[in-house]
Design goal:
Rossmann fold, 7 strands, ATPase_AAA_core, single chain, alpha/beta, P-loop_NTPase, 3 domains, nucleotide-binding, nucleus, two-stranded antiparallel ribbon, 23 helices, five-stranded parallel beta sheet
Length: about 450
Amino acid sequence: MSKKKNMAIDFQDNMILLTRKYLKRKIMCPETKFRHHVKERLHVLELVKRTVEMGESNSALLIGPRGSGKTMLVNSVLKELSALKSFKDNALIVNLHGLVHTDDRLALKDTTRQMQLENVVGDKVFGTFAENLCFLLECLKSGDKKLSKPVIFILDEFDLFCEHHNQTLLYNLFDVAQSAQVPICVLGITCRLDVIELLEKRVKSRFSYRQIFLLPGDTSSTEQPASAFDDRLELFQHLLSLPDDENVNKIEQQYDDCTIDPQFGSMWNEYIKSLTTNVTMVNLLKRMYHIDVSERRFRNFLAVAVSTLSEKHQKLEVNDFVEASKIFSQDDKVLMLEGLSILEMCLIIAMKQETEIFDDEPLNFEMIYNRYIKFANQNSSIQSVQKPVIMKAFEHIKNLEILLPVGHSNMRVEKEYQYYKFTLTSKQVMEAVKNYPGLPTEVSQWAASSI
């Protein structure tokens, strides 16, 4: 009897560990099923499909706020097309990322690797980026355009490629797409709504001006969900459910080290389903949904809750989700401010006061510099800082997207006088001041002083 009991305990412990492993993979490595923006997804699908099947060259920009599902949309399109033999056998996909490929040399080197042409290039020496790229594309030719291998270029964080010297990479890719030398599709992904204004004139002239927007709250679903939150509740149940009898074989092929007993899975799923009707749980999910609708943040929240599972803690209690939510209920921007230097916090306070005095009017560096210097001169305990150092701190704040440029970026304005919109509220600034460790009293008082 004791032996049977021990075996049962071991089985249960093993199932919990496998459940935790399976759910974390499912949550953090999402399947490429895309539930929203049906019309926009179809647009991207048709563009890529025409490049592969008809040898047609295209270029487009996929634009939307962070967390709106841009990358997931593209991945779902590529997964669907990879099931087609014509795509799988012929098409080449080149993924470039603005944060990784910070100059054209790195981008070209990785393009060569992804196109598997290192051996072909060898020790050849080329004069320009254009000659390099043309050689790579020529290697894919086998006669006319229809017999050339189509290449799909995915440029994530597209706006960062606009900072490359002379925008050479973008110019050459769009030039090839426009001239139809070989079938290529250039798909840029960005959260910058003003991204077209970042392009140089010669690059603009070669771009198709095809822009696909993913707007928050626009699900464009073919189905008729009762509400957006019901969709979130359905996702909650889906992500925390184990494979049923019909999907066990499919899951075993995908996760051969996560074979879960169907009977255990069925009992687990019934419990997860009961959580979707628990009033405390539903209210918690609603509150989180109203703070942030992005799926990425939601998945991170679930991953934290699932991580609490262990041999000693074999059930996901409502309190586990409550505790996990505390990490994600804090304002990201406030947390970001708490990591700034004291000088940068002073500039943030100066920006807050400037926007309060002038009713949210745009501001520039000179305005903030003068306001900060006035404060520093009135407080002997504040260390004097040279103007170039203050400019560097201002640039850092700008790079964090706390300041957004106003007006066209191609207007020639000295950086001290470029206008920006301050994106934080007074409440956010004051909360950061309150939580900032070791902030000088004079600075705290300055932030709290009425204008």
